[in-house]
Design brief:
alpha+beta, Umud Fragment, subunit A, 2 domains, seven-stranded antiparallel beta sheet, 3 helices
């Protein structure tokens, strides 16, 4: 699989070297001297590539939602933006933390590198912070012995196979759905330090921490905050511009 981040770093290094070499040579050659096409290309691309690298690595990165595990919050075909600096600035490729800024909060929708295969990016909602004990019984969450507030809203999108709820994690409410025909998987789990327990909003149709464990802090990519495009066989205008809650 092509590692776009690594490719971007390599292109920045190559074009930057060409740009620097050209600046050095420019002092020693006649003003009307011809410049090789590859030098001209490298020095032209360098400012563009380094801006893309900085923005993508430290500010914001676009992602596409591939599945329905986060319904009804996110649909397959949604194109989202992820805040890269909210949880601290990390170096591209190595992902080493260089500037600690903030920490994830309960209820955040986060993009992270899948712990089983870090070449894949996943998106889920944080339902447990480091040190929290998460209990899931009868499809109901409790955190440190306190039941998570929940309200039933009816059927989801006219589909009687799914119930629509709203749930409060921290100070904010979000919507989630449950499949009536699924029994759920009860468990109790204490989140280790520097890890986060995540679940999909489509509770019975999500591969998440219930199956492969908590997400290490160093795997976090950023917080999803905005849907800038929604396209699944055509544009879904009603979702474009939505803030992710």
């Amino acid at each position: 699989m092509l590692d776009f981040e690594l490719l971007l770093v390599l292109l920045t290094a190559v074009s930057g070297t060409i740009w620097g070499f050209d600046r050095w040579r420019r002092r020693r050659r006649p003003a009307d001297a011809r410049v090789s096409w590859w030098v001209d290309l490298g020095r032209s691309l360098f400012p563009v590539i380094i801006i893309v690298l900085v923005v993508r690595s430290f500010i914001v990165e676009p992602f596409r939602i591939p599945s329905g595990s986060m319904l009804p919050t996110l649909e397959a075909g949604d194109f989202i933006l992820v805040n890269k600096f909210g949880y601290g600035l990390r170096l591209p490729v190595s992902h080493d933390l260089i500037v600690p800024v903030g920490k994830p909060e309960l209820g955040d929708v986060v993009v992270f590198r899948y712990p089983v295969d870090t070449s894949q990016d996943y998106i889920k909602r944080i339902v447990g912070l480091p040190g929290d004990t998460i209990t899931y019984t009868g499809k109901r969450l409790a955190i440190n012995g306190e039941p998570v507030p929940i309200e039933r809203l009816g059927e989801w999108s006219g589909d009687d196979a799914f119930n629509l709820f709203r749930e409060r994690l921290g100070d904010d409410w979000h919507e989630m759905i449950e499949h009536r025909g699924s029994s759920g998987r009860g468990f109790s789990f204490t989140v280790p330090e520097a890890h986060y327990f995540v679940m999909g909003d489509n509770r019975d149709r999500s591969s998440d921490s219930r199956f492969w464990g908590p997400v290490p802090q160093e795997n976090l990519v950023g917080k999803a905050f905005f849907i800038w495009l929604s396209w699944n066989g055509g544009p879904n205008w009603s979702r474009m511009g939505d803030v992710i809650e």
